[in-house]
TrEMBL record:
It comes from the Bacteria. Residues 20-151 form the Tripartite ATP-independent periplasmic transporters DctQ component domain. Pfam families: DctQ. The keyword Iron does not apply. It is a multi-pass membrane protein. This is TRAP transporter small permease protein. One of its GO terms (cellular component) is plasma membrane. Part of the tripartite ATP-independent periplasmic (TRAP) transport system. The complex comprises the extracytoplasmic solute receptor protein and the two transmembrane proteins.
């Protein structure tokens, strides 16, 4: 079976890492030459690191690569394993659903209030919008992973 993929998230994470590297390199070069640095690099780098974290977690979910302890799963009979996998999937869905809901609520509030970022004065919701979007993407990947595990398509590494 071909490994499941999350190509959108992989591309997003790759672009974020490349942008972090480029703006950090540019900042170092400018600071070396002029003794001044770009003001935007820290704010953008922090945002992009959060983006990389969520996109990478989504890829890990899809590829069944999250850290887990499967001792209990392996000790259970097949029917009980199915119940446990379902329970694990539902727990992940609930948590990611809450992150998406409250992230969307926070993003909407920041939009309504017109809050600006502390460093550059950009609308804060520009940064926050990615939280619910990527949480929904992770939720989708959690559903795919749970489905695949219930069908026996994803095996734990021994």
């Amino acid at each position: 079976m071909k490994d499941p993929d999350a190509s959108f998230e992989r591309v997003l994470a790759t672009l974020a890492i490349v942008i972090i590297a480029l703006i950090s390199l540019a900042n170092v070069v400018v600071r070396y030459i002029t003794d001044a640095s770009f003001a935007f690099t820290e704010e953008f780098s922090v945002f992009l690191l959060v983006l990389v974290t969520f996109a990478g977690a989504s890829v890990a979910l899809r590829r069944h690569r999250h850290i887990r302890i499967s001792l209990l799963e392996r000790a259970l009979p097949p029917r009980a394993q199915q119940v446990l996998i379902t329970f694990q999937g539902l727990c992940g869905i609930v948590v990611l659903g809450l992150i998406a809901w409250f992230g969307a609520k926070l993003t909407w509030q920041e939009y309504q209030w017109g809050t600006l970022s502390p460093g550059l004065g950009l609308p804060q919701w520009w940064y926050l919008l990615w939280l619910p979007l990527l949480a929904v993407m992770m939720l989708w990947r959690q559903c795919q992973q749970t489905r695949d595990r219930l069908r026996g398509g994803l095996e734990d590494e021994s």
